[in-house]
Design a protein that fits this description.
Helix content is 79%, strand content 0%. It is built from nine helices and no strands. Helix 1 packs across helix 6, helix 2 packs across helix 3 and helix 5 packs across helix 9.
Length: 203
């Protein structure tokens, strides 16, 4: 009986690995679809086709459309947070570099996908609680990372609001970039915000 259990465990390994790969492909395809086609044009069937899996397999991993797309945005947000931490693995970094990296979080495919979810959630009752919870979690994590990378001391009055203002500004730049390439103006704003942070947070 022990031999049978061992054989079953060994067989489960590759199956679980394939399941993780399938799930990852679905999540990445869902983010791409949202960013390119918006909520109305992004269905489970469309995502499954892009991911190269059957619709049944997609629904096995994510029983509802809402769960698929909120999980997709959360997955990529977590990956971006990890990449951001690894970029500055030694701790606090030059303020201009940190501001630029944070702004970059809001100007790519992930932000476009998240934006589509926010808009859809304003009209879709069944989607709203998923998106509200996701936004709160991602917002808290991004704020924590920003504080860490900037070397900010939030016990000092006004520092927490300054960091949050930076993130709000970065989100605004992301919105401006949705309709047109805002690179040139963004570079000037990043430089000025680095100066503001140096003055507000100290060396």
């Amino acid at each position: 009986m022990g031999a049978m259990t061992g054989h079953g465990t060994a067989a489960a390994g590759p199956k679980q690995a394939r399941s993780r790969v399938t799930r990852r492909h679905l999540l990445e395809a869902a983010v791409s679809c949202l960013a390119e086609h918006g909520w109305a044009g992004s269905t489970v069937a469309v995502v499954a086709e892009r991911a190269g899996v059957s619709r049944g397999a997609a629904q096995h991993h994510f029983p509802t459309r809402e769960k698929l797309f909120t999980a997709a945005v959360e997955h990529v947000a977590e990956e971006r947070s990890t990449a951001l931490r690894e970029l500055f693995h030694a701790g606090p970094a030059p303020r201009a570099a940190v501001v630029e990296a944070l702004v970059d979080l809001y100007t790519g495919t992930l932000f476009r996908a998240a934006l589509q979810l926010w808009v859809a959630a304003s009209n879709e009752e069944q989607l709203r609680p998923h998106v509200s919870g996701l936004e709160a979690r991602v917002g808290r994590e991004t704020h924590r990372i920003a504080v860490e990378l900037l070397g900010a001391d939030e016990s000092v009055p006004g520092v927490r609001e300054t960091v949050q203002g930076l993130l709000d500004m970065a989100r605004g730049l992301g919105l401006a970039n949705v309709l047109s390439d805002d690179t040139a103006r963004r570079a000037r704003v990043v430089t000025q915000w680095a100066r503001i942070l140096d003055a507000a947070l100290g060396p």
